[in-house]
Amino acid sequence: MKFFHFRKKESPNTEPACSCSCGCTEAIESGTTQEIAAGQPTAHINTIKVLGSGCASCRKQYENAKAAVQSLGLSTQVEYITDLEKIMEYGILSLPAVIINERVASAGKIAPKAEIEKMLKGVNE
After folding, report:
1. 4 band by pLDDT with thresholds 50, 70 and 90
2. DSSP assignment letter at 78
3. Whether the Cβ atoms of residue 94 and residue 107 lie closer than 8 Å to each other
4. Number of other residues whose CB lies within 10 A of the CB of residue 65
5. CA 22/CA 17 separation, integer angstroms
6. Predicted structure pTM score
7. H or E element in which residue 74 lies
8. Tens digit of pLDDT for each residue in 60-81?
9. What does residue 48 show for φ and ψ, rounded to 5 degrees?
10. What is the pLDDT of residue 114?
């Protein structure tokens, strides 16, 4: 029987996330999961990932995330990750999960399109 080994997540990339000089990496590094979940604004949305096992619920979460990105007119691609080792690097125990700028924004439930839009806009209701 194979046991899963939890690895500590490596520190965030310190290279600029975009080609502008706005200090994106500082904003990404200073952000926390709580800030994203609470709707605090972030500098830029560089990465959006949906973590899932490939089940219907996880695919639905992926579709909701893509729809939210499209309705906001963002150019960011939504990545769908089903590799268990990559998922475990985030410390996620409940799927599906939404990761924004390498921070857990939602886990263990299917977040509707409107909720994902609020997370992406940084609007707190």
Report:
1. low
2. E
3. yes
4. 28
5. 10
6. 0.63
7. none
8. 999 999 999 999 998 889 999 9
9. -135, 125
10. 95
Distance CA 105, CA 97 (A): 8
Residue 10: partners with Cβ closer than 8 Å, 6 or more residues away: none
H helix or E strand, kind and range, residue 100 = strand 97-100
Find, among 27, 77, 71, the residue nearest to 48 by Cα: 77
Single-letter residue type at 82: T
Burial state string for 85-120 with b = 16 or more CB within 10 A and e = fewer than 16: eebbbbebeebbbbbbbbbbbbbeebbebebbbbbb
Amino acid at 36: I
Amino acid letter, residue 110: I
pLDDT tens digit sequence for 6-57: 555 554 444 444 444 444 443 333 333 444 444 444 457 789 999 999 999 9
* Residues comprising the chain, all counted: 125
